[in-house]
Design a protein that fits this description.
This protein is α/β, with parallel strands linked by helices. The chain has a single domain, classed as NAD(P)-binding Rossmann-like Domain (Rossmann fold, 3-Layer(aba) Sandwich). It contains nine helices and seven strands, in the order βαβααβαβαβααβααβ. Strand 1, helix 1 and strand 2 form a beta-alpha-beta unit. The protein is globular.
Length: 251
């Protein structure tokens, strides 16, 4: 099919990495679904020049709580009603906290796991029927350096949820490889987004000094990598994790 007819869902698209990724697909003239729990952020996105100048029939803005399975399923129904297909799912929505081990409550633990890990699983599950019928699809999970190295700039619950995404990627990839569906992970670190504003400047200074390329990454760099993994050119890649971290983790 014409790549410009593809339907791409990006969760957590109201700001930061999610917004950059969604804008990348707008630039590629695809049908793009901006998903976020924060309706006010989505309304701000609608006023961006790139979005205002784009064909509105190729855009959809949905307020979705990815920790709520019913909310996910409702969004998928709306998307299918509009376009009848789903080609790419970017599981980017997430919550990051730095709470110390001793201070993590059951409620906070459950919140992060249900958003970061549960959202990834249940949104992926919700699009599978359609992708299987199409015999094609791309699922890309946005994990983190935190899920691989457990840095002290993120809480244990966040790191656990992001590590869980890596395992989900492999399981989904093995299960769906013969269905024409690929599943991969992008694992960023030290990317300059609004989330970085929440980190102590002293910690940021130490972090930057420890990055081999001596700078923070740009959200557009992550978006370009995601775009490649969503393309036909990546058809022989599945179950992989792509590190984009300036050399902080090499394997």
């Amino acid at each position: 099919m014409n790549p410009k007819e593809q339907v791409v869902i990006v969760t957590g698209a109201g700001q930061g990495l999610g917004l950059a990724i969604a804008q990348q697909f707008v630039a590629e003239e695809k049908n793009v679904v901006f998903v976020d729990i924060n309706e006010s952020l989505l309304n701000e996105v609608k006023n961006l020049n790139l979005i205002k100048d784009y064909d509105s029939s190729k855009l959809l803005f949905l307020t979705v709580d990815v920790s709520d399975v019913a909310s996910i399923q409702n969004s998928v129904s709306i998307i299918l009603e509009k376009w009848g297909r789903i080609d790419v799912l970017i599981n980017n929505a997430g919550v990051r906290k730095e709470t110390s081990i001793e201070d993590i409550t059951p409620e906070e633990w459950n919140q992060l796991i249900s958003v970061n890990l549960g959202g990834t699983f249940f949104y992926s599950q919700a699009v599978l029927k359609t992708m299987k019928e199409q015999k094609s699809g791309r699922i890309i999970n946005i994990s983190s350096f935190g899920g691989q190295a457990g840095p002290l700039t993120s809480g244990a619950h966040y790191c656990a949820s992001k590590a869980g995404q890596l395992a989900l990627t492999k399981h989904f990839a093995r299960s769906l490889a013969d269905e024409g569906i690929t599943v991969n992970t992008v694992s960023p670190a030290a990317i300059a987004t609004p989330e970085m504003d929440k980190i102590d400047p002293a910690k940021l200074e130490i972090m930057q000094a420890g990055i081999p390329v001596k700078r923070f990454g740009r959200s557009e760099e992550v978006a370009s990598l995601v775009s490649y993994l969503a393309s036909e050119a990546s058809g022989y890649i599945t179950g992989a994790t792509f590190d984009i971290n300036g050399g902080m983790l090499m394997r």
